[in-house]
Amino acid sequence: MQTVGTTPPQAESRTKLKRSIIDCDIHHYTAHEYYKDYLPRRYLESPPRAAGSGGGGHFNGGVGGRMVDAIPEDGSPAGSDLSLVQSQLLDPFNVEYGILTGDSFGLQSMADGEHAAAIAAAVNDYTIEQWLARDGRLRGSILVAKQVPHLAAAEIDRVGGRSDMVQVFVSSGAMKPHGNRFYDPIFEACCRYNLPFTIHVGVEGNGIHSPETGAGRVAHYIETRALRPQNMMAHLVSFIFEGVFERFPDLKVVLQEAGVFWVVPCLWQMDQHWHAERAQLPLVKKPPSEYFRKHVRVTTQPIEATPNRAIFDKMLASLFAEETLMFCSDYPHWDFDSPQLALPRLEEKLWDRIFYRNAAELYGLPDRGTGIGGKQS
């Protein structure tokens, strides 16, 4: 069995952040060679078949889409070595809690749902034993096979009661928009354990998933990247107009790594259409922006660059950022956002909400310095 944490620290010297933060998106490496020992025997000799990819394949920034300096000295993949994650991210940036998100959500595009569910369970067990057990600052995400909702709910029941597993994790690539009643068993399980349902950009157009854009498949990765908000917008609109938050009033949803400010005109448009057509939507009892403000959270990476600071501040206000926005670095990907550089200088209270308190409230984490976070042997 492969383990993590075997490489000496290689982090460059940095000034440590004075106040601790919560990083909501750390991609530890979770490929087949790492989780295979947690799989049932019948799957050991049958690695998952690669799903067909849309979008012209991935941009190969860095090495395999990851920062070159995040590769351990022994040449193992970036994100596979706990000690390097500690020395490059957790320690220098004073990360009090980091949410692990892995990189195995391609299983959600597999046609064989039972095999996908077995992989999800193996990845979860690998994360618990090889990562969460070794550093008290880390929290895990429950990977599920969302294409088989009853098996996804069973996996949430299996590990959802753990205090170190803090969200249910799916890709934005999907067969159906995520507000569809098809997924209700997953939302029921999320509510049983008070776990957010997090949608992370990825595997759009792959395998059993719908094309990566409403107009069909595209030729280049940059097209997929530029149109990420389109896919996530479809999920957000679906959640609200399908009445998910009326059926599941305790459910929280996180939109991760699809940009930020696109949400604002989307809310304006939804509110406008709701006022004109709400007779068709008996389950939508409030303006869509009210559901968003109560139930949805958005992560910072990659936040859009506005023409000037005044527009940036107005967009933050229109997003209700003091309540809804959470920091994520996307380590160790090529477009990693340093906590020191990701956002311009903010008023202290807003900085505190974005970099710590919004995530602490969502994930049920303690105030700074009052938890049990810290290195473990």
TrEMBL record:
GO molecular-function term, one example from the UniProt record: carboxy-lyase activity
The UniProt record lists the keyword Lyase: yes
One GO BP: secondary metabolic process
UniProt keywords, alphabetically: Hydrolase, Lyase
Organism superkingdom: Bacteria
Entries under PANTHER family matching the protein: 2-AMINO-3-CARBOXYLMUCONATE-6-SEMIALDEHYDE DECARBOXYLASE, ISO-OROTATE DECARBOXYLASE (EUROFUNG)
Gene Ontology cellular-component annotations: cytoplasm
Entry protein name: Amidohydrolase
Pfam families per UniProt: Amidohydro_2
Organism (species): Paenibacillus hemerocallicola
InterPro entries: ACMSD, Amidohydro-rel, Metal_Hydrolase
Domain Amidohydrolase-related: 22-365
